[in-house]
Amino acid sequence: MYQREIVCLDCGGATQAIARVLVDGGWRVRPASSADEARRLLDELAPRIALVAFAAALPDASDVRTLEDVLETNTRTAWVALVEPGLLESPAMQRLIASYFRDYISAPFLPETILQSVGHAYGMATIDGVAYQTVAAAPADEMLGQSAAMENVRRVLRKCARSRAPVTVTGESGTGKELAARSIHHQSAHATGPFIAVNCGAIPANLIQAELFGHCRGAFTGADRDKIGRIEAARGGTLFLDEIGDLSLGLQVNLLRFLQEGVIEKVGTHRPISVDTRVIAATHKNLEKAVAAGEFREDLYYRLNVLWAEMPPLRERADDIELLAQAYLERFSSLRNGRAAGFSRQALAVIKAHPWPGNIRELVNRVQRAVVMSDRRLVTPADLDLDRRCISRNPQTLEQVRAAAEKDALRRSLRHSGHNVAETARDLGVSRLTIYRLMEKHGLQQNASGVPLACTNRNA
């Protein structure tokens, strides 16, 4: 009989009895005793559903952050929580469940309740998966935004898509670096090939070489069959290496050889395999500083950083915030039959005033929570878990807003042109003298440091 797979993470809860119920119900249970082990299973199996069993007390803060990271990076998995009744009184647990879980079950854990809950969550995850695939097939629609910053990003990505050279996408966490990589892929000559994403920081160090390059049977304990690595799986398409800055120095050497020669060797063999794969890397780290500190190979840095693009933080996309919030509200409401149809005036005010340190990922999280929590047609600040007091009591004057926008436009244009004053003047439609005056006004130097937001061949 076909068995549906479910990952069961034990956060101090007793899962053995639960596992027996699930096995008897036709599920194939994959137990995990830690968040890191659950992450590995999720990466390997990509299950539609996972279960977390909590003990009577909430895990400590560091364990909760690790768990949240796993939950945030596996949004296509439907999560179900097993919770002791007393723990449900904790505001922290209430926020955790509301933000990430499709359903929860409180003790006593009756077999019929467990099977009904996970079965329903599995079915809904299947429906959501179809919706996700439909959206992923048209990534251009996902690059939402009408701000000048996003128009610049789109222009850069189109240029990057025309080349076969490696691309490095930089930006803060949650700014949509993978989305940018998918946009490049779908506009490139590799669009008909696969897009394979690898989070270099999420795979355990002792497994990542085999994950990237594959392994032969008998290469190490547990290698009972040959396995194709992610690089080979992306043949004819695009390999997206997220958080490339977390890759160990040893693996950086192997990756450098692949980029130079287009060949890989599986773990356990020295037979070279030729692979035609376009590489896009991403990181929130400053790789130039990592090179200076000896944490990242300089030769690999220049191989990866032939073309580059920077994703702007959400706080620099003020014109897009309301548009993004409304788009995600409509999506989550349609998928989950939510009641919310829009945002209240107060909710829009706090959305625009919030600094969004977590960028788009935080916005998505809060809107998804609001769809679950809202009992009205219009979302409130409380539904978003944002305090109305966050609205600034000292708003900027119009002159301050104009000066900030002027400085930002000048800085970005200078970075785009490689600090070429003549080109910057043409881009902004002013004279070179005006550019020099504005640079002096805003304290910008012609040789200012910083990674340009451009698609430029540094080796040219």
Automatic annotation (TrEMBL):
InterPro entries registered for this protein in UniProt: AAA+_ATPase, AAA_lid_NorR, CheY-like_superfamily, Homeodomain-like_sf, HTH_Fis, P-loop_NTPase, Sigma_54_int, Sigma_54_int_dom_CS
Record's keyword terms, sorted: ATP-binding, Nucleotide-binding, Transcription, Transcription regulation
Annotated CDD domains: AAA (cd00009)
PROSITE patterns (alphabetical): SIGMA54_INTERACT_3, SIGMA54_INTERACT_4
Sigma-54 factor interaction domain segment(s): 143-372
Highest rank taxon of the organism: Bacteria
PANTHER family tied to this protein: TRANSCRIPTIONAL REGULATOR-RELATED, TRANSCRIPTIONAL REGULATORY PROTEIN
Name of the protein in question: Fis family sigma-54 specific transcriptional regulator
Organism this protein belongs to: Salinisphaera dokdonensis CL-ES53
